[in-house]
Amino acid sequence: MDGKKYKLRFCIGLILLLAVVTIPFLTPIQKYLSIPNDIVTVNSRAPIDLPTLGENITINSSNKTVQAAKSNEFYTKESGNSELFYEFAGLPIKKVDVNVLDDIKVVPGGQSIGVQLHTKGVLVVGHHLVNAKNGNTSPGEEADIKVGDVILEINGKEIKKMKDVKPFVEEAGEDKEALDIKLKRGKETINTELKPALDNNEDDYKIGLYIRDSAAGIGTMTFYDPESKKYGALGHVISDMDTKKPIEIHDGSIVRSSVTSIEKGNNGIPGEKQAKFSSEHDKIGNITKNSPFGIFGKLNNDMENGRMKKPMPIALSHEVEEGPAKILTVLDDEKVEEYDVEVVSSVPQKFPATKGMVIKITDKELLNKTGGIVQGMSGSPIIQNGKIIGAVTHVFVNDPTSGYGVHIEWMLQDAGIDIYKEQEETNKAG
C-alpha cells in the first residue's frame, strides 16, 4: 500500500509541476500576465493600447477621464485617476489603475551657457603648512578641519566670501587668541577652535587652509517653462574640482556662452568644448539649486534656440523607446544644431534616479567634429517622437561615442515643475 500511495503522490506532484511550468507559456495566460497593474500617462492625444483577451472579454472605464476608441484602445479626456476593468459576462477579472497627468509642455534648450556659482560659506579644498616659530604646522589640520568642510561662521559672524576670513585671522593672531569656527560637514554641523600661526616667511598670520567661495564652467540649457520661466540645465550636479563633492550654493547665475573650439575626444580621454563668457555681463538667469539632476533657477526672459521655438510635450521614463532620437547642442559660437543619436537602453523609473538612459551618437558630422560626447555637452536635450525625453549627462571614458542620459521628469521635478502634484494630492485625499 505504501508503494502505491507513493506512486500516486509522485504522479500528482509531477502533474502539478508540469502545470506550473507549462501554464505560463499558454497564449491566453501569457496575454493575461502581460496586462499592467497600473498605467501612468499624460493627458495628450496618444492612445493607450491594452492587450486583448478574446471576443468575450470587454474592457470598460470607471469614469470619463479615460474613454474607449476601440475595444482595446483608449484616449485620455482629462487629468485625474481612473480604472479600466477587464470583464467576462459582467464579472471583473482584472483591474488596471490609470493615472492621467497634466500635459506639461516646456521649451527645449540646446544653448551653451556659462555657469557661475557662489558657495554657501567658504569651501575648504586643501591644507598647507605654515613656517611658524616652532616649525612647520597647519593650524587648520590641527583643528580637525577636513577637505570638503564648509566654514559657515567665525566668532559668531556669517562667512559668505573668502575676503570675510582674513580680518578675523589677523585680529585673532595679533591678540594671540583662537577663532571659534562653525563648519558644515555633510549633514553635520561642527564647532571647533583654530589658532592662527605667524608665517615667518611672509610675516603674516595664516590658518593653513586653502579655501574657495565660487566655481565657474560651461554647460547646456535643457528646457524652460514659458510661463514661470523656471529652467533646468546640465542634467548632473556640479562638484568642486578638488574635493569632488557637490557644491552647496549660496547663489549663482547663468550667462550667455559662445563656443570657440572643440577639443576632440579619444578612447580614455573625453573631449571638451572651449567657450568664452563673462560672469558680469549678459546674465540670463539665476541659480537657486544644484542637485544630482542639474542646476535650476529662473530666467530673466524667454530664451530662443533658433530651431524649436514652441513648447514641446515631455515623455515619462516608461514612454521612452529604444531607437532613434535627436539632441540639440552648440558646436560653434551660439548656433544650436540638431544631431542624430540612438537610445540604446532606457530604464522605466518610478522614483528619481540618475543615469536612466544609455545613448549613442550616430550623427556623422557630430562624430567628425567632437568624437562623440564631450564636456560642456551636459544638459543637451534629447528629443524623440516629438517629445523631450531627457538630457545628456555623462560620457563613457572608454567609448566617447556613448554615455548616460537622465529622464526629463526628474529634472522637471527639481525645477519646481511637479508633474505628479495632482496624483499626490489625490492620494492624500484618499
From TrEMBL:
Q: Where would I find the Peptidase S55 domain in this sequence?
A: 188-427
The record ties this protein, via PROSITE patterns, to: SPOIVB
Q: Which domain of life is it from?
A: Bacteria
Any keyword Protease? yes
Which GO MF terms are attached to this record? serine-type peptidase activity
Q: Which UniProt keywords apply?
A: Hydrolase, Protease, Serine protease
Q: Which InterPro entries match?
A: PDZ, PDZ_6, PDZ_sf, Peptidase_S1_PA, Peptidase_S55, SpoIVB
Q: Which NCBIfam families match?
A: spore_IV_B (TIGR02860)
What protein name does the entry list? SpoIVB peptidase
What organism, scientifically named, is this protein from? Virgibacillus massiliensis
Q: Which gene encodes it?
A: spoIVB
